[in-house]
Write a structure and sequence with these properties.
It is a single chain. This protein is mostly helical. The protein folds into two domains: 2-86 and 135-172, no CATH class; 88-131, no CATH class. It is built from six helices and four strands, in the order βααββααααβ. A two-stranded antiparallel sheet has the order 1-4. It starts with a strand and ends with a strand.
Length: 179
């Protein structure tokens, strides 16, 4: 004895043929929007946590497309990890003095010579004491995870509607039992 269920509706069968292309096109748009949204929220979190000296770090945060249907939101500066996680005392080597001197010069209105002199002391302090973590990526993701998932679900639903192409259509299905 065999029982079988099948779909023999032309609209549904054509929708299955169109589905991969339609779903990819629509989901690519929604994944891109989710990446842009997350990058914006990471920048907002960075602004609010008080760890920004210049806008260099903020301007480096952007989504990248490593492959279709994926976005990696990244900070394009090497020190982003040190801001997010902090550094332990005993930092290997001294942090670069030039960015520290520039920050001191602008933040405190110092001459270039005075800023360079103080930058050495600040670099030595950072090496010996470490830096406090000022997370911005993880809090931004945690606060917005449900919104990101909702965006992707919305895209999937739109893709399914577009692939089927007909609203309110009832598929012609059949079933047999026997033989």
């Amino acid at each position: 004895m065999i029982g079988a269920v099948h779909v023999s509706d032309e609209v549904i069968l054509k929708a299955f043929e169109r589905a991969p292309g339609v779903m990819t096109r629509i989901m690519e748009r929604y994944v891109g929007q989710a990446g842009q949204f997350l990058a914006r929220e990471v920048r907002r979190e960075l602004r609010h946590n008080g760890s920004m000296g210049f806008t260099t770090l903020m301007n480096s945060i952007r989504p990248e497309r490593p492959f279709p249907l994926a976005r990696d939101v990244k900070a394009g500066v090497q020190y982003a990890r040190h801001v997010e996680d902090g550094t332990r005392p005993g930092y290997r080597g001294m942090p670069p003095r030039r960015p520290l001197a520039e920050w001191l010069r602008i933040k405190h209105g110092l001459t270039e010579r005075e800023a360079n002199r103080r930058a050495y002391g600040l670099a030595k302090h950072i090496q010996q004491q470490g830096t406090k973590a000022k997370p911005f990526f993880k809090p931004a993701f945690d606060k917005n995870e449900s919104r990101l998932l909702a965006m992707l679900r919305e895209g999937a639903a739109e893709g399914v509607r577009a692939a089927i192409g007909v609203r309110g259509h009832y598929a012609m299905t059949g079933s047999i039992y026997g033989a």
